[in-house]
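Summarise this fold before class:
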Amino acid sequence: VQLVESGGGLVQPGGSLRLSCVASGFTFSNYGMSWYRQAPGKERELVASISSTGGSTNYADSMKGRFTISRDNARNTVSLQMNSLEPEDTAVYYCGARRANIRYWGQGTQVTVSS
């Protein structure tokens, strides 16, 4: 099983980034997918999640209207479009897969929002 994130980097406040996560080794379309993040000294927190079919999404309150999660089951990919980024969004962003009590995690990608 592999979840490989990409797309992180350094961006100025107000800028945008698009994160991607490519999955392999399991039946992607059977799993709900999520993006989490963890800032230094803080607990990992949910950013957004999407159902296995893509028909349902959920966002943390502070991300609503700024972030958009999407998935492409044909390409085993889940993405996170992040707009209007703020310094407080600086964190390592992790892709996660979940089905019942089975969970997989990627290695994370660093997002730094700074001028």
Summary: The chain has no helices and eleven strands. The mean pLDDT is 97. The two ends are 37 Å apart (CA to CA). The longest strand covers residues 91-99.
